[in-house]
Amino acid sequence: MEINEREAGTPTGHPVEGGQPEAPETSKRPDRWTLVRRLDRSPRATKPAPLPRNAPVRPAQRNTGWTVLAVLAVGVLVVGIIAVGFRGSLGALRDAAIAAHIESDAARLYWIGVDGLIVVAIIAALVLRNDKAAVRYCLTIVASFTLASWLLNFLHGLGLFTPKTPGGTVPNPPWGVVLVIASLVIGTIFFGTHLLVYVLRHLFPGTPVEQEEDSPATVAESATDGDSGTPGSPPAHPAKGVQRTSDEDLAERKKWAGVAYGLALDKGVTIPKVALAEAFQISTRQAGYVRSDVDLEREERAKRDAAAATPNAAPLTPASVTPPPSLNGSHPVSAATP
Asked: What distance in Å separates the CA atoms of residue 322 and residue 309, rounded to the nearest whole number?
């Protein structure tokens, strides 16, 4: 009769003393994942998380004095190099302007408009570096005026803007060259002004009301309101409804601003334009209009009260009373003066 190993209590079928079976031999060598878990739990194995591949490396702390001196030295050298480039281009652009029959006094300043706008466009690109479209616009101006300045310097080197004989007259350049010289004059005015407006709008954004009107949340909310309705019916607020809703909100704010200003005047307090604009989220110009409307209304009301209090005065009829004018195009706020 064969003996079952499991019933015998030993893997080989031999009984053990005391009736307790021998425990089977297990391998004492841990597997790979057990070692990894032990290393992770070990305090000696804690390492700082590796930096990403493209992570910027912080430079080592340096002496501030030497850093300032180095920056000043590099700045002085760069300004000197730029000055040399300006001086070298001055003669070529001046002769090109004189050849295109530009006044001699204006021709001496012609290089400032061409080469100076290159520097202005580079600075504007640094200021507007977070706006990719603005940066591309600035770099396009830099590339265009750099190419035009190089072309005029190249033609000047070929002797196109110098007289053929000493003391002679300068020959008329080809019409294409004259077109480039004249276009640079107008381009300097246009692009310089546009860059200035671009930078000013970036540094000094609009009022909070204008930012709220242009915010994506306002547009999304208006679009959601326009979609609400029965299927197949036209939207409740069409495309122009966004502006109309904003105008109504602005009119409501100006109305309550006039009420607050009138109540303050009754107590002998004059609210400044800036404080009124900040309190009701309107622009300073609109706050000035609100103040002017309330002041005009109070003046007209004082005249009517004075006329009514005068003895033997003709009674005032609604047709004879002219409403006070409104500077901001809205009706005067009657609630401003109780």
From this structure: 18
